[in-house]
Structures are given as C-alpha cells and as structure tokens.
From TrEMBL:
The keyword Iron applies. This is Cytochrome c peroxidase. Heme c 2 binds at C230, C233, H234. The keyword Nucleotidyltransferase does not apply. One of its GO terms (cellular component) is periplasmic space. It comes from Methylobacter tundripaludum. The lineage of its organism: Bacteria, Pseudomonadati, Pseudomonadota, Gammaproteobacteria, Methylococcales. GO terms for molecular function: cytochrome-c peroxidase activity; electron transfer activity; heme binding; metal ion binding. Heme c 1 binds at C81, C84, H85, H101.
Length: 396
C-alpha cells in the first residue's frame, strides 16, 4: 500500500530544488580574521542562541550541571541525565538503545548533547521545540528515570538545603514557588555550554588551514558535497556548518523491517493518542511504534519512518548510529546510503522512503574516504568536557 506516493514525489522535487540551490565548495574559505574565534570552540559554528526568558549566568549553569548529574531524580536512584549522556563518551552512552531504571531499555539511541543548543527541535522525532521542554520528559518516562510525576523531583530539591539556597539565589524563588520549569531552565542552561566546534574541518574550511585535513579527508569532503550528496541534508553554510538541515527524513532504517505492519500500527497509534496516550511513552516502550518516527508527532502519513537529521559533528565518538543504534560503524552507515536506503544491495526499500535516497554507486575506497572525512569533524577534546565560555547570544 503506497500511502505516501504523492508526498514522496513532492519530497523528491524539493530535494532536487535544494540541490540546485546549493553551491558547496570543496576548497577552504578565505580567512576573515574578524570572524574567526580564537579560543572559544566556536570556530565553524554560529552564535549560541539563548532564550530571552532563560539568560545564562555562571550560577545557573553550575546548578544545571549539578542537576544533570544527580541520580536521585530517578525511581531507583541510579539514573541521572548523564547516564545516557556521559561526559566521557561525548555525551552519549555508547549503547544501541539506552538503559533506564532497573535495567529497563528503551527503543532509541541517545543522541549527543554536544551542540544540542543549535537544534531547532529535540528528540529524534522532534516532539519538543527546545532544551527546556526536552529536560522534563525523561524524568517521568516509565523506562528512563521512571518517576511518577515531577513533584517527586521538587520534593528532593526541597529537602536539600544546598539546592534550595542555590535556586533562591539563581531564580529568586522560594521552596513553595519552585516549579519543574525552574529545574528545566537550569539543566538547559548547562547544556547550552556544551559547544564543540574547531574541528580539523573547521580549521581547513573556515580558517584556511589547508593542512588541517589529510588527503583522504579532503577526498572524502569532495565526495560529501559531490557524488555522495551528503551535504543535501547535512548542510554547510557560508560561515558555519551545523551538518543538519533540521528536517525529518525516512532513510530506510527500522521501518524497512515492519512494512507489513504499517496500516495496523498507524491506526492503533492514532487511536491511542486520541485516548490520551503520551507520544514519548508509546515510542519508548514499543519497538514497532518507535519506527513510526515523525508521524507519531504530526499524524502525517508522509512522515512515517522519518527521523531528524542528526548533526555529524563528533560523529566518530558517538557510535552506534541511527535512531535505533542498529548500525555499529561509520562504514556500515556509508554502505547503507550507498545501497539507496537498505543495508544489503537489492533489498526492498520501504514505501515511504524520502525522495533523493537512491544508490550512490560509490566504490569501497570512496566509502573509506567518506569515513575519513567524518573523523575530521571531531572537535578538540579537553579532559572529560569541552571547554567553553558562557554564550551570550539572545534568541529572538
């Protein structure tokens, strides 16, 4: 049943138009000394957007750091935000899908928090628009922190004199007026300091250092913007590169294995939502529902199996890959795309595959060069964390 034939054709047209409008260059840009950060890890990145209603302060960031690493905010006292977003693992956990309280597993791979400040939406399906909204969900998800409600978080804070004093200082709020929004704002403020640019690619492309990348990485970059067409979704702008278009695409991961279940799944999911079912709970507790992707948020058939384009920055450090952690290595990822959205050449693609996903006909040495380029997107590591200043750019 090809529900999405028309939307796929539209996507293909848009993809072709996007390619026509994109003029990537495989040469380093001319150096503009006025625009090149020298020590703040922002080389290759735009200014960090900061919400007007949640300005950054050192004390708020320190509070968010403490909250981010506090295991008490879980039903069994073992799960903090940092369990799935480990400082020492590029703020991921190295697992296909994350493990929550009492060893329960979800259905999705933990994306890195590095540079999440630039995301136009959060989670693989984009169900939250900002870091503040994202911070609140795992606490009460039944397979993550497992708390019954946010009141339990506030109860822990209200019995901790150090927390109470800090919240009073940072937000000028008493224990009685403390809300989960204050907690989320502090965590989000900390996460907005996890900024990582200044990779070999950035020094090559934006700082004009022609020796910053190896020959293999330069060849891989030429494929990235050329025959591989990776840049169509993992975008590079004139003065910065987030390596994501912030859109949602069905690239043939996960959904390929449940095609026969789509009619039943979509109907059952919509019925459950209409009865008050929570999207985050349904997609993290049922593997097949998880594969519905962006559809679970929008109810649009054209977005079945579509997931957010992740950034490629520091991708060398964040294996395994894809929303379900099903691809173990960067080489496997390259093979999947080279095959046109299937893991093995000749397999049937799903009916909802995004337009533009098709065989690339790259050779094995070319795939290796692409992998080499991916490694040029790794930022300089400073101890267990990236060293960053307090960003000051206000979001409109």
């Amino acid at each position: 049943m090809r529900y999405a034939l028309l939307p796929v054709l539209v996507l293909a047209t848009l993809f072709a138009q996007k390619q026509a409008d994109t003029k990537p260059l495989a040469e380093p840009a001319a150096v503009n000394p006025q625009s090149v950060p020298d020590k703040n890890n922002l080389l290759g990145l735009p200014p960090v957007p900061i919400p007007a209603n949640n300005p950054q302060t050192p004390d708020k960031i320190a509070l968010g750091d403490k909250l981010f690493h506090d295991k008490r905010f879980s039903v069994d006292g073992t799960v903090s935000c940092s369990k799935c977003h480990d400082d020492k693992q590029a703020f991921t956990d190295g697992l296909p899908v994350s493990v929550g309280h009492h060893g329960l597993t979800g259905t999705r791979n933990a994306p890195t928090v590095l540079n999440a400040a630039f995301n136009q939406s959060q989670f693989w399906d984009g169900r939250e628009p900002d870091l503040e909204g994202q911070a609140k969900q795992p606490l009460i998800n039944p397979v993550e922190h497992g708390l019954a409600d946010h009141k339990q978080v506030l109860e822990i804070i209200r019995t901790d004199p150090a927390y109470l004093a800090t919240f009073q200082s940072v937000f000028d709020v008493s224990a009685k007026k403390l809300t989960i929004d204050h907690v989320a704002k502090a965590i989000a403020s900390f996460e907005r300091t996890l900024i990582a640019g200044n990779s070999p690619f950035d020094r090559y492309y934006f700082n004009g250092k022609t020796d910053a990348m190896t020959d293999a990485q330069i060849r891989g970059f030429e494929l990235f913007v050329g025959q591989g067409r990776c840049v169509s979704c993992h975008t590079i702008e004139q003065d910065h590169a987030l390596f994501t278009d912030s859109r949602f695409h069905n690239i043939g991961v996960g959904i390929n294995q449940i095609q026969q279940d789509i009619p039943r799944l979509t109907q059952a999911f919509l019925e459950a939502k209409n009865k008050g079912g929570q999207v985050d709970t349904m997609v993290l507790t049922d593997k097949k529902s998880s594969e519905l992707g962006r559809f679970a948020v929008t109810d649009e058939l054209s977005q079945i199996g579509a997931f957010k384009t992740p950034t490629l920055r520091n991708v060398e450090l964040t294996a395994p890959y894809m929303h379900d952690g099903s691809l173990k290595t960067l080489k496997e990822v390259m093979v999947h795309y080279n095959n046109g959205g299937v893991n093995k050449a000749g397999e049937r693609v799903n009916d909802f595959l995004s337009g533009g996903i098709r065989p690339l006909n790259l050779t094995d040495p070319q795939l290796n060069d692409l992998v080499a380029f991916m490694k040029a997107l790794t930022s300089a590591w400073s101890g267990s964390k990236y060293a960053n200043p307090i960003p000051t750019q206000a979001a409109n």
